[in-house]
Amino acid sequence: MDEIIALCKRRGFIFPSSEIYGGLANSWDFGHYGTLLKNNIRDSWWQTFVLNRDDMTGLDASIFLSPKAWQASGHVSGFTDSLVDCRNCKFRTRADHLIEEKVKDIKVEGFSVERLTKIIKEHKLKCPKCGKDDLTDVRCFNLLFETKMGIVEDTKATLYLRGEIAQGIFLNFKNVLNSLRVKIPFGIAQQGKAFRNEITLGRSVFRTMEFDLMEFEYFINPKDGWENVYRYWQTEMWNWALSLGITPSKLRWREHEIFERSFYSQKTMDIEYNFSFGWKEMFGLAYRTDFDLKNHMEKSGKDLRYHDQKTNNKYIPHVIEPTFGLSRLVGIVLEDAFTVENVKETQRVYLKLDPSIAPVKVAVFPLQKDEKLRKISGHLYENIKKKFVAEYDNTGNIGKMYRRQDEIGTPFCITVDYQSVEDNTVTIRERDTMSQKRIPMSNVVTFLDDRI
């Protein structure tokens, strides 16, 4: 993990946030290549689950919702985590994470604070930072970030940064029905920021306070049953993960036990990824029943039932919810692609990214700092970048240029040399195998198109 974080910073994927001021815990900034990678994954998700389907609509709801929405959804009262402090060094951490890190074969999600405190004392767990056996009793804290709305201090109203992006979908359910005239079964999808006041143990972008989510609520008639729809979305989620090039042997499904499930879920399963620090959640799939629409209907007094025109019946739809953490997924893709191999007694590091999501698709080099080579390679680069994200490098050291592109995951590098001047051919080098072949310059775009 340390090697991956170092590469991400060195090559401009991910930076520690506010680093010049000593950093801010659990906060990361995406650099140029990290942003390109994240956008490519995001666009692939939107294309797969929204644009390629006739039963899905899009939405971009506000980050700020009425505080009544979070009260109705249960987040104000039930969206909590367990917290423990060190009396010696004041280090703060999540009690459940501390226990699961230090005590073998134990899952504590859903345990009471009293039970968590008892486990910490029985196993004499120490502070992860200073090593002292001086931890406070466990207490709960709410994960929603509070903020204020208004100009005059005395009249400011309390608002919350959204802890999930689903509630904006439920609040707009009737608007979508009235404006698009969709029919059940159908889904409403969106992508956007969410915020949770979580205490984490680091691990880069795996768990942060501010993160990007991609998810949709798929509305169904409860009389038709939910099990088949649930299994269908399991398959679709798994197939999309594989399309990103993630190693299949590092993925598995795991069903939540009853005490682990969120208060709104009747069944939840995760696709887990085998990180360098163990199996952890990548995607989640929840059957939320009619919990959300029913609560918002009761609390708002608005009719959120679906009117079936064929049967003239009205009912509250049930919901299947696939959730994808985009920020976390960027970290997973980078860890999965991180490859180290020995080549002629030297070490080569490269990111084995699928070409479809690689930040840069192709790099163009002149072999040497020669005006003829620069002119030809510059012209070729201008043609390529009309269709693909490309880079041009004329530093003149072919080994260093290859190394840099390997570390940002560029699948193809094109070199223009003196033979190019004579016969209009170039050398294309493939990242993973380092194999090279010569092709006519006129065939370059077609060659890349077939492989990307």
UniProtKB/TrEMBL annotation:
Q: Which keywords accompany this UniProt record?
A: Aminoacyl-tRNA synthetase, ATP-binding, Cytoplasm, Ligase, Nucleotide-binding, Protein biosynthesis
Q: Does the keyword Protein biosynthesis apply?
A: yes
Q: Kindly state one GO CC term assigned in the UniProt record.
A: microvesicle
Q: Which Pfam families match?
A: HGTP_anticodon, tRNA-synt_2b
Matching PROSITE patterns, A to Z? AA_TRNA_LIGASE_II
Keyword Protein biosynthesis (UniProt): yes
SUPFAM superfamilies per UniProt: Class II aaRS ABD-related, Class II aaRS and biotin synthetases
EC id: 6.1.1.14
Top-level division of the source organism's lineage: Bacteria
What is this protein identified as? glycine--tRNA ligase
NCBIfam families tied to this protein: glyS_dimeric, PRK04173.1
Q: Which GO terms describe its molecular function?
A: ATP binding; bis(5'-nucleosyl)-tetraphosphatase (asymmetrical) activity; glycine-tRNA ligase activity
- Which residue numbers delimit the Aminoacyl-transfer RNA synthetases class-II family profile domain? 2-355
What GO terms in the biological process aspect are recorded for it? Answer: diadenosine tetraphosphate biosynthetic process; glycyl-tRNA aminoacylation
